[in-house]
Amino acid sequence: MDPEAFLDLANQVAKVKMYPYFDLAHAVVCCLIIKEDMGSGAIAFSRKHPLALWFSSMMSIFAGSIIANFLLGEPSLTPFKNNNQLLLATGVWYVIFYLPFDFGYKALKFLPVKMGCEALKEVYRAKQVHDGVGHAAKLFPNAYLVMVIIGAVKGNGDAFMRVLERLARGLWTPESVELIRPTFATKASVVASAVFVLHKKTDLISAPASCVHLIIIIFFVYFKVLGISDPLLPLENVLKKIFLGGIFDTLQETFYGKPEESEEAKKDES
Amino acid sequence: MDPEAFLDLANQVAKVKMYPYFDLAHAVVCCLIIKEDMGSGAIAFSRKHPLALWFSSMMSIFAGSIIANFLLGEPSLTPFKNNNQLLLATGVWYVIFYLPFDFGYKALKFLPVKMGCEALKEVYRAKQVHDGVGHAAKLFPNAYLVMVIIGAVKGNGDAFMRVLERLARGLWTPESVELIRPTFATKASVVASAVFVLHKKTDLISAPASCVHLIIIIFFVYFKVLGISDPLLPLENVLKKIFLGGIFDTLQETFYGKPEESEEAKKDES
Amino acid sequence: MDPEAFLDLANQVAKVKMYPYFDLAHAVVCCLIIKEDMGSGAIAFSRKHPLALWFSSMMSIFAGSIIANFLLGEPSLTPFKNNNQLLLATGVWYVIFYLPFDFGYKALKFLPVKMGCEALKEVYRAKQVHDGVGHAAKLFPNAYLVMVIIGAVKGNGDAFMRVLERLARGLWTPESVELIRPTFATKASVVASAVFVLHKKTDLISAPASCVHLIIIIFFVYFKVLGISDPLLPLENVLKKIFLGGIFDTLQETFYGKPEESEEAKKDES
Fold first, then answer.
1. For A212-216, A244-248, B213-217, which range has the lowest pLDDT when averaged over its residues?
2. In A, which residues are within 8 Å of B71 by CB distance?
3. Which of A36, B7, B57, B241 is most buried, taking the most CB atoms under 10 A from its CB?
4. Is position C1 within any domain?
5. A98 to chain C, minimum CA–CA distance in Å?
6. Does A243 share its domain with A226?
7. What confidence tens digit (pLDDT) does each residue in B167-210 have?
8. Which long-range contacts (CB under 8 A, 24 or more apart) does C101-104 make?
9. What residues of chain A lie within 8 A of the CB of B144, using their CB?
10. Confidence of residue B111 (pLDDT cuts 50, 70, 90)
11. Are residues B192 and B97 in the same domain?
């Protein structure tokens, strides 16, 4: 592809407004995840506890901003001040949970529609990561870790909110904390945040900001659409083997035999 | 009643200071709820873990301000800076849990005393809702939902704090999240917040502010003293039937038969 | 000891930088506690969930600042903006969990090394309490309780963070809330905070600030090195007997017989 044309495209992509289409796709994906998370009890729960379900959905949809604001000491309710986004999210919630004959859910779960929404959501994610890193960089100009954390949290907020969002529905699942088994979306957000930080704070990446942004979008959408579960896994395993004990543990086992494992560890493995 | 006299009364009520009598009544009601929540283990627990119990009580008494400050990005400890209120609350805590022969608890549980405290607490609640809506409106002038949330949280803070307040006593009850089964106090606070927001932001309610405030107080005290469990329930059920699937679910059952319910939903129903 | 020499020493101690040696000792003690908290599953967990373990360690090491910032409405991520401290903490985490043959852990658990670290950590704790009280006093000049809370939280943050830190590792232990069974470190931090508050806000303690600081350090280190589990316990028991029902409960039992205890209270006792 011609670099000139790519730069033009990148500049146009950087100017695209998130509201309403990308916000809509994001809300749809979040609500579908919640509906699937509830399994067969979804309809019964939605009829009995609409308020809890609505809060749960809003917490999930605005999770990135809520957690980032909380971590940066700003009002957690800030995302709720945008009445248009709120109405949009409420509409999506209503369509997915309450349309007669479960029509909304069935229509949006239809594969091409769902794929489209997920692709748009990845564009939204890239934008959120970008904005998160920028916002953190303004508040803490030299705090690289803070930028990465805020970028990751804004990029994949609903996964980090999962435990609290379920709590709002009366479920408590401490073992599903995102940090324990980070999904690819989290890892990708961390990588993207790190790329944005490198671009902002060092001279290592000389491309213009809009190009970096577009490349991140392509990277997100590409792996989502291809459905590769985790392309970072091999790299991660190599690093784990080298730095986090892998090789030396094997060495130690050769010399001293396998250490007896606790019951808990065994259970965790199976 | 003569409108002039009503307006006069309303203006006088709006000027009433909350400290000390209304604060006192509020603290008494909160501590009584905690004591009853602990059941027969209350005395044993109070003797063994006074610090946890004290924090639990303070969290409950100042719950509205703590949660509202947290949500608005202000210091959560702000309510603890008022030493007089703190001493008052500590005094109530001591009287209810530690007076010899459980005298304080028995005296305050005596029906006329308890009813008086609950009536005063409703006046306090109306004031809290009013102040909460006003405070949120200053920070986010167009965020109607934020105003309603802050009003509801300030009006019925101890119910929203329940899960955390129990956690401070080592109990974890995720299923008792207020949002799942909102009490009438929560619903009434939401309605009152909405009325205050409508009065502040639209021209729909033309009465002066103090009159609206007095009407809310009367509404709160009236239903508390009458002991009607939930006068909003019929309205709620109608709305649920129309908007949240009721009628169409019945229609669907007629056509397709009752869907098989999950085990969880059945358990939830029984 | 000569008062002049003591004052000189105190002034010099007050000027000592915490970074890097005291920060190092603090990080070592925190990580050792986490490793011991995980028991025999530590190595298996560290190999499988390094990210969760790293966050858990950072939450524990920077717990004081994180919680204090949270309570004061400041960005919780502030401690992460100091890249040097962060690298130091990460280094300690790596050494303790991932050195081949568990070498780091074994070396640091070696008694004289561990004792040295714990002694340094007590100096660090005294400094944290001092800074916490000073910081809170700037924000809320008359809020004595807020100063004591912030001092205590900064002094013994990792104990208050324990429940959340375990949650980051997927464990949920609501019964181990610090407030229910406060350790000596918490009580000592509360006492030290109260002494700093008295010195700052009243004329009761006429010694110069640096002397008070040194005396607190000596008090902390002395009881830690001696290994007395809780020198405040006798005083506490006397106060409990007088004010929190002890004597009158006995009196009541004499008159009316022992009240029947609930099952829960019995379980709690055994």
1. A244-248
2. 75-77
3. B57
4. no
5. 34
6. no
7. 999 999 998 898 998 988 999 999 999 999 999 998 888 888 89
8. C101/A248, C101/A252, C102/C43
9. 83
10. confident
11. yes
Query: Is a pLDDT exceeding 90 seen at residue A226?
Result: no
Question: Distance (Å) from the C-alpha of residue B264 to the closest C-alpha of chain C?
Answer: 23
Average pLDDT over residues A91-118: 91
Tell me: pLDDT of A270 over 70: no
- Counted domains in chain B: 2
DSSP strands (E only) in C92-221: none
- Supply the pLDDT for residue C172: 92
Same domain? For B183 and B171 the reply is: yes
**Both C97 and C206 in a single domain?**
yes
The confidence band for B270, taking pLDDT boundaries of 50, 70 and 90, is very low
**Chain C residues touching B80 at Cβ < 8 A:** 143, 145-146, 149
Residue A202 lies in domain: 3-231
Q: Are B75 and C139 spatial neighbours (Cβ–Cβ below 8 Å)? A: yes
**Chain C residues interacting with chain B (CB cutoff of 8 angstroms):** 70-73, 139-140, 142-146, 149-150, 172, 174-175, 177, 179-182, 240, 243-246, 248-249, 251-252, 259-262, 264-265, 268-269
Q: Which residue positions in chain C have pLDDT lower than 70?
A: 1, 257-270
- For residues A170 and A189, membership in a common domain is answered with yes
Q: What DSSP assignment string belongs to B58-124? A: HHHHTHHHHHHHHHTTS-TTGGGG-HHHHHHHHHHHHHHHHSGGGHHHHHHHSHHHHHHHHHHHHHH
Residues C224 and C241 in one domain: no
What is residue A233's predicted lDDT score, i.e. its pLDDT? 84
Q: Are residues B118 and B35 in the same domain?
A: yes
CB contact under 8 A, A268 and C45: yes
Pure H helices in chain B? 3-15, 21-38, 42-48, 50-61, 63-71, 83-98, 103-109, 111-139, 144-155, 157-168, 184-201, 209-226, 233-243, 246-256, 263-269
> According to the model, what pLDDT value does residue C30 have?
95
Distance CA C49, CA C38 (A): 13
Q: Do B244 and A50 touch (CB under 8 A)?
A: yes
Both A195 and A219 in a single domain? yes
- Of A121-130, A253-262, B221-230, C105-114, which range is least confident? A253-262
Q: What residues of chain A lie within 8 A of the CB of C46, using their CB?
A: 244-245
Say what the ipTM of the complex is.
0.89
Task: Tell whether the model's pLDDT for residue A258 goes beyond 60.
Answer: yes
In a domain? residue C7: no
Residues of A within an 8 Å Cβ radius of B: 39-41, 43-52, 55, 69, 73-78, 80-83, 86, 98, 100-101, 167-172
Contact C139 B41 (CB under 8 A): no
**What is the mean pLDDT of the segment spanning B1-7?**
83
Q: Do the chains contact at A50 and B142, CB–CB below 8 Å?
A: no
Bond preceding residue A20 cis, omega within 30 of 0: yes
What percent of chain A clears pLDDT 90, i.e. is strictly above it?
A: 59
Distance CA C66, CA C157 (A): 8
Q: Which chain A residue is nearest to residue B246, measuring alpha carbons?
A: A47
**CB–CB contact C81 A146 (8 Å):** yes
Mutate to test the interface with B, among C264, C266, C267, C270 (most CBs of B within 10 A): C264
Do the Cβ atoms of A167 and B149 come within 8 Å? no
User: What is d(CA A212, CA A206) in angstroms, rounded to the nearest whole number?
Assistant: 9
Mean pLDDT of B154-163: 94
Nearest CA in chain B to A87: B145
Whether omega before A75 lies within 30 degrees of 0, making that bond cis, reads no
CA geometry: angle A182, A187, A190, nearest 5 deg? 125
How high does pLDDT run on average in chain B? 88
